Amino acid sequence: MSEYRNQYEDFKKNLVGKDAPWISKIRENAFAEFQKIGFPTRKDEAWKYTNVTPLVERSFPPFVPSSHSFVEQADIDQFTYPGSDFQTLVFVDGEWNNNLSRVYSLSEGCYIQSLSQAFEDRPDLVKKYWGNSTRLEAHAFTALNSAFVHDGAFIYVPKNCIVQKPVHLLYITTEKSKEKSLYLKNFIILEEGGEAEVIETYASTHEGAYFHNIVTSMELHCEAKLDHVRVQHEGIGAFHVNQLDVSLGEKSNYFSNHITVGGGLTRSDIYVSFKGEGAAAEINGIFHPRHGEHVDYHVVVDHVMPRCTSTQLFKGIIEDEATGIFNGKIFVREGAQSTNAHQTNRNLLLSQNAKVYSKPHLEIYADDVKCTHGSSTGQLDAQALFYMRSRGIGEREALKILTRAFADEVIQKIKIEKLREAVEQLVFEEAKTSEGT
After folding, report:
1. Looking at the domain assignment, is residue 390 inside a domain?
2. Which of 38, 165, 201, 348 has minimal Cβ neighbours within 10 Å of its Cβ?
């Protein structure tokens, strides 16, 4: 803990909002919370299958860039989506890069900018949404993020404003970030009747070790609509911990797809809370760990208000000696009548050494509800494989076809065509599906 205290004292003068007393207080409280709870261990139920010791025991001091890492448009083309016309904020090694970013003219009062920009231009607006954005009790990594955050994205959509083009938040790490930690916080706020499409992409140009710690806060007010896609394909050396907090107002609609296909150790916490009646959320995900990678999804959907709907569909494709985890919880609070909530997790093992742990969970304290949850894990259908082989399709090709069919149910839910095509290629670009699976 003393090492982190020293880092905090050394680096806080470089952090966003360093001169604002209110944010300094938040940082100090967050660091105190971190010291109190400490890092999770496998004795903690929520971390039972994820060992963070390899991360905790390494020294990853916060990365504070003194100048932009040298990256050109050609370097980031591999992480964009060909043929797309997105508004784009590019962050290189955690620092917003104005030269590579592209934001078109926006409606009055609509802001798409870096958090550091927003703090300078609209400090009152940032303060309004920062204070209650993070549940510090989540775990130590969340508290660390609040203490060390140095930048991120700030998207604000005013009442009845529709953002015409998808917004792409692109986070790239380069060799400069090796053995460093990057702490980022994103704010996405949609006022009443606001609509937007937001894509988050996390990628790296190298396979070296670094620590990515991200918190994203989303607040949807009455009848707001958000289409959200999150894509992570970092190198095998990456430690990636992220938390997503979504607050849904009356009759709002949140539609999301979460894609994880890279990173040595990934932990994703998704928390969706219904704060108004008649809201709806659809949360889909696909994770495809390989080569010893470890992916851990924890999803909590909290039905606080009545007449709300939620659906979850997460699929895992696990190869080699990789590990996949899905821990999903649905809470239906007392008074949340007429709730309609469904949760499904399906997993496909493509190796004798692949492992998956699945734990769907329901807690219901209301009596007028429709709720289901289920989980299944298995290998490819032997009969289907035999049928395709008997029709002259080679084993390797047959395995690919069946695996694609398994994943297609999730991938086809991505509404943006160019993005959907790119994700499909990404999910299967290194799929082995070889003999012995």
Report:
1. yes
2. 38
Residue 73 one-letter amino acid: Q
> 10-residue block means of pLDDT along the chain (437 residues)?
79 77 89 90 93 91 70 82 87 91 89 94 91 68 92 96 95 89 96 97 93 96 98 95 96 98 95 97 96 96 97 95 96 96 94 93 94 88 70 74 87 93 83 42
Of the candidates 110, 223, 122, the residue with the CA atom closest to the CA atom of residue 167: 110
Token pair, residue 253, equals: 């609609």
Report the percentage of the chain scoring pLDDT > 90.
Answer: 66
Q: What angle do CA 234, 240, 246 make, to 5 degrees?
A: 110
> Helix, strand, or coil here: 103?
coil
Q: How far apart are CA 325 and CA 299, in angstroms?
A: 11
- DSSP letters along 202-259, please? EEESS---EEEEEEEEEEE-TT-EEEEEEEEE--TTEEEEEEEEEEE-TT-EEEEEEE
CA 282, CA 108: separation in Å to the nearest integer? Answer: 30
Phi, psi of 425 (to 5 degrees): -65, -40
**Enclosing domain of residue 128:** 2-428
- Strand ordering across the sheet containing 153-157: 111-114, 153-157, 181-190, 210-220, 238-248, 265-274, 294-303, 323-332, 355-364
The model scores a pTM over 0.90: yes
| Extended strands (E) in 136-194 | 153-157, 167-173, 181-190
30 within domain boundaries: yes
Task: Count structural domains, the chain.
Answer: 1
Domain assignment present for residue 24? The answer is: yes
Amino acid, single-letter form, for residue 127: K
User: 């696990």: which residue's tokens?
Assistant: 318
Residue 375 in 3-state DSSP?
A: strand
Give Cα 416 to chain centroid, integer Å.
Answer: 18
Give the model confidence (pLDDT) of 93-117 as tens digits: 989 999 899 998 788 899 999 999 9
What does the angle CA 135 – CA 139 – CA 141 come to, to the nearest 5 degrees?
100
- Residue 435 within a domain: no
